[in-house]
Design a protein that fits this description.
Elements lengths: L2 E4 L8 E4 L35 H10 L1 H34 L1 H5 L1 E3 L2 E2 H43 L6
Antiparallel strand pairs: 1-2, 3-4
Helix pairs in contact: 1-4, 2-4
């Protein structure tokens, strides 16, 4: 871990502070990589390794079969679910405007068809949210987490060009 000198003001002696976040600067460049070249005799010399850029790594991950599988699992659930919910919502709106007599028909006491269908909209929203979370947990989360770890391992040590 590197020592960082911290000064509070004029005339205050420098106090070394261990800063675990100092390994990489805010600019994204690692100052240690520019400190020297290997073999120049300086202890802070770190060899530069030119590997793929971050953009190239992410493009490689995007083209990978594992990423494509995660995306296809996502699309196979989300597109049909969104379409079904949209059609259900539009059917409710169309029925409310085109068939007010049907929507006003009592079901039980003062509760009519429109109220039951409106409550069905809320129930469908919660049911769809639960189904989406379950699908993500069972079908995509593990594969996405594996991809994330692989991507982090590939980007570790990347020197920005």
């Amino acid at each position: 871990m590197e020592q960082v000198d911290k000064q509070e003001g004029l005339g205050v002696p420098a106090m070394p502070v261990d800063d675990p976040w100092y390994d990489a600067t805010a600019s994204g460049r690692d100052e240690r990589a520019e400190a020297g070249t290997p073999g120049d005799g300086r202890p802070d010399a770190v060899p530069r390794q030119w590997v793929h850029s971050t953009a190239e790594i992410y493009l490689e991950v995007q083209r990978s079969p594992a990423f494509q599988e995660v995306r296809s699992r996502y699309r196979r659930f989300v597109f049909p679910a969104a379409l079904a919910f949209l059609l259900w919502y539009l059917a409710y709106v169309v029925a409310a405007t085109a068939a007010p007599g049907l929507m006003a028909r009592p079901v039980a006491g003062v509760v009519n068809v429109a109220m039951v269908a409106g409550l069905g909209q809320f129930l469908t929203t919660f049911l769809l949210t639960w189904a989406y979370a379950r699908h993500a947990r069972l079908r995509r989360d593990r594969a996405a987490l594996d991809l994330r770890w692989d991507t982090q391992e590939m980007t570790r040590g990347v020197v920005q060009r």
